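From the pipeline queue, job 12 of 40. The input is one protein chain; the requested action is below.

Action: predict structure.
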Amino acid sequence: MGGLVLMNTYVLHSIVPTNVGLPLANIAPQSFNLLTKYHVAHGFELGGQAVYASEIKGGSLLVANGGVAYPNPPNPTILPSHWRFDTFAEAKISEHVNLKLYVQNIFDKTYYDSLYQSAQPFIMVAPGRSFSLIAALKF
């Protein structure tokens, strides 16, 4: 399975006239996702996922580096593009029990979700490597 998103976002209407026409903050204009799963043996599967997000313009609440907070032509603060890779293994233990081990961000890459420029600017750091063990029970 896979998906591709191509967006060109901008403000159409605003109570702040200088925001009209500016891009929305914290939106990746291009993103990509590819997921695959392989049946290895009876009841056992392996899979992986690749996720890409293009660079993101940070900003205040809504608008990317423009409007009242930034009256000059926008000189955007940009979060870099990034790739993230995940993997998983699934096992059918019985007719009623499935187990799934999921590892997100397998290379423990540091990347950022969003950037807010306001009186108290901050950056949201995306989660590092994480492991999940999921048991699914059928009654």
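Job complete. The mean pLDDT is 87.
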